[in-house]
Amino acid sequence: MSQIPAELKYTKSHEWIRLEADGSLTIGITDHAQEALGDLVFVETPEAGQSFGSGDAAAVVESVKAASDVYAPVAGDVIGGNEVLADAPETLNDDPYGEGWIFKLKPADAGELDGLMGADGYADFLKSEQ
Amino acid sequence: MSEALIFELSSPGRRAAAQAPVEAAAPTAIPAEFLRQDIPGLPEVSEMQVVRHYTRLSQKNFSIDTHFYPLGSCTMKYNPRACNTLAMLPEFLARHPLATQDHSQGYLACMYDLQEILKSVTGMKGVSLTPMAGAQGEFAGVAMIRAYHLSRGDTERTEILVPDAAHGTNPATAIQCGCTVREIPTDKNGDVDLEALEAALGPKTAGIMLTNPSTLGVFERKIEIIAKKVHEAGGLLYYDGANLNAILGKVRPGDMGFDVIHMNLHKTFSTPHGGGGPGSGAVGVSERLRPFMPIPVVGKDGDQYRWLDENDLPQSIGRLSAFMGNAGVLLRAYVYALMLGPDGMTRVAEFATLNANYLMARLKDKGFDLAFDGRRATHEFIVTLKKQKQELEFTATDMAKRLLDYGYHAPTIYFPLLVPECLLIEPTESEDQATLDAFVEAMVAIWDEAKADIDKVKGAPYTQPVRRLDDVRAARQLDLRWTG
Questions:
Q1: In terms of CATH architecture, what is A9-109?
Q2: What confidence tens digit (pLDDT) does each residue in A11-59 have?
Q3: Which chain A residues have a beta carbon less than 8 Å from that of B472?
Q4: Confidence of residue B276 (pLDDT cuts 50, 70, 90)
Q5: Rounded mean pLDDT of B269-276?
Q6: Contact A66 B475 (CB under 8 A)
């Protein structure tokens, strides 16, 4: 069973979102997503200053099996991408909720976060996908 | 045994006299600064070393000439020798592409006939043979859709709808043509989600790109409704011809309402493909896209054939290559079409579909799970090893690698992306029942092996020139060049 930390928010496209103390968001893909993709060989992260609407493709993760977009869960401006992933994409497989984060976003409207799933909601969603 | 690179066989001063130039080339008009000063790093080997090296490599070839090749979405079918022989008649081979039209009437007549045959079998109103490969055919198709809207002053139509089951080339093509892509989901039966389609249609819709039968190996049953809705919204329909083999002579894209279609003549019409050899992505168009066809096209005035160019088609999207496509591929397609005739083309679709459904039914009978159980397969179908992965850690990769030991080319794996642990299997019309039965037995035997000893399957292949490759490391640490 894949890990679903209780303190995070989730999307149906398998991103996780952590609200930091300064109001910024850290975004990655879930343990379930990295496992489904398999060993990652390439991660393209967005650059600071880029703006995204909710649901826009913001990053790309590529494994030997598949390439997949990572979507901005809410609208906002990019603060930065995780530069570690450029040379060590396996970091995302090893630690999807920690060192393997993908990008940080300054949300345009923090209220948008309320529309995302909690850990229980995401766990139920994964079950319904089985 | 792995074969050394020819560079590794090199030893200083060794040469093959038969291949050596008789004398040094005469000085040329190339300016001195562009002339090479150092000696090119070519391998120094004897004639016999070259012969043995390349003969051994050729013996490692895995091909349709030696083995069953059920590579889904690729139509690895048998290509009759006659097509190749006739395309290589010296009169064709020696014809210079700049030969005058009155010295090219034979070749032009063949190409004109091929255009007419393709129009007839697809139900389109015009055909241009000039795109050099499938991807260029797609590019031509979407470029024509763009040109059509722009010619009407309809500048806002820049959005191309693409089902999520589409070939990856479709969204890439749309972007290349300056459009944006909007993805349309597939419903659980493998059809386009009509509600999502309706919600996406609007004044920005340039068109939709569809593969029918789809990459899920099923026929899009609501195609007429989709065509009506897209046309009502002002968009056009693009047909990706990747799976044309399944419907050849049975259903015509023109009758389904498509405005533009590309055909992979290199796979559906008898040129071996895979490996980046020359291709042909001929395009067919509806009446309203005829003015925009890429040039040249072959026309006929009385009993004389001639190239149609900018003067004949001033709204054309232009030229895609120096001359007109890959002549050899087009000639093979022409010979193949003549050998089959209309009835033969129908039999291609019938036997491709029969073989796929037979293989699918036999595998289901042996306990394999189908991705779309209950749907009739077209020319290909999808088996999912999701259950086997959960129970045994037995994956699609393991099955693919072990099949190599049994003498089969692996089917496509992990495509389409929508289906977990999938094998996309396409037997084609070329194979007989005994071959299909033997393939089923191999799949069953491998599953049994996985139950008894999963490590044995995970270690496959055992009989190939190399063992299982570390594809993750290969992708992470690209090493593409021999450096000595």
A1: Beta Barrel (2.40)
A2: 999 999 999 999 999 999 999 999 989 899 999 999 999 999 999 999 9
A3: 39, 41, 64
A4: low
A5: 79
A6: no
Where are chain A's structural domains? 9-109
Predicted pLDDT at B415:
84
For chain B, give the secondary structure using H, E and C: CCCCCHHHHCCCCCCCHHHCCCCCCCCCCCCHHHCCCCCCCCCCCCHHHHHHHHHHHHHCCCCCCCCCCCECCCCCCCCCHHHHHHHCCHHHHCCCCCCCHHHCHHHHHHHHHHHHHHHHHHCCCEEECCCCCHHHHHHHHHHHHHHHHHHCCCCCCCEEEEECCCCCHHHHHHHHCCCEEEEECECCCCCECHHHHHHHCCCCEEEEEEECCCCCCCCCCCHHHHHHHHHHCCCEEEEEHHHHHHCCCCCCHHHHCCCEEECCHHHHCCCCCCCCCCCCCCEEECHHHHHHCCECEEEEECCEEEEECCCCCCCCCCECCCCCCCHHHHHHHHHHHHHHHHHHHHHHHHHHHHHHHHHHHHHHHCCCEECCCCCCCCCCEEEECHHHHHHHCCCHHHHHHHHHHCCCCCCEECCCCCCCCEEEECCCCCCCHHHHHHHHHHHHHHHHHHHHCHHHHHCCCCCCCCCCCCHHHHHHCCCCCCCC
Please give the structure tokens belonging to residue B85.
């022989």
Give the distance from residue A110's alpha carbon to the nearest chain B alpha carbon, in angstroms: 27
Phi, psi of A104 (to 5 degrees): -115, 140
Which A residues 42-81 touch B at CB under 8 Å? 42, 64-66, 68
Tens-place pLDDT, residues B15-52:
887 777 676 666 678 888 888 888 788 899 999 999 99
| A17: enclosing H helix or E strand | strand A15-19
> Containing H/E element for A127?
helix A119-129
Average pLDDT over residues B11-16: 89
Q: Which of A13, A56, A65 to mutate to test the interface with B (most CBs of B within 10 A)?
A: A65
Beta bridge partners of residue A71, listed in sequence order: A57
Q: Give the nearest partner residue to A66 out of B417, B472, B476, using CB atoms.
A: B417
Structural domains of chain B, with CATH: 6-59 (no CATH), 82-341 (3.40.640.10), 344-475 (3.90.1150.10)
B50-102 pLDDT, tens digit each? 999 999 999 988 888 899 999 988 899 999 999 999 999 999 999 998 999 99
Give the pLDDT confidence score for residue A86 in this predicted structure.
92
Q: What is the percent of chain B where pLDDT is above 70? A: 98
Query: CA of B413: which chain A residue's CA is closest?
Result: A65
Partner-chain contact B475 A65, CB within 8 Å: no
